[in-house]
Specification:
two-stranded antiparallel ribbon, 83 residues
């Protein structure tokens, strides 16, 4: 692995996960990073965290199943505010 990579999964039947907001979880992200990624993985995690607070984006993610559309939605998220 040479760069930070992300994986997005939309779970068809949301899972109870004892989330802070008490809502079942249906949007899941996984980040993979090389050992020498430094703070890059933290920046990526900050972008994901901020993005998931955007109700409009979450609705769009839930409404789409096309991989290209999902990639576009996620790739459009601003990165300059990352940690």
């Amino acid at each position: 692995l040479s760069t930070v990579c992300g994986l997005f999964v939309l779970i068809e039947r949301p899972l109870e996960f004892e989330a802070v907001d008490k809502q079942p979880v249906d949007l899941v992200f996984a980040l993979l990073a090389p050992e020498d990624a430094g703070v890059e993985h933290l920046k990526a995690l900050a972008v994901v965290s901020r993005s998931m607070r955007d109700a409009d984006l979450c609705a769009k993610l839930r409404a789409n199943t096309d991989p290209a559309t999902l990639h576009t939605l996620l790739a459009e998220q601003p990165r300059e505010k990352a940690a």
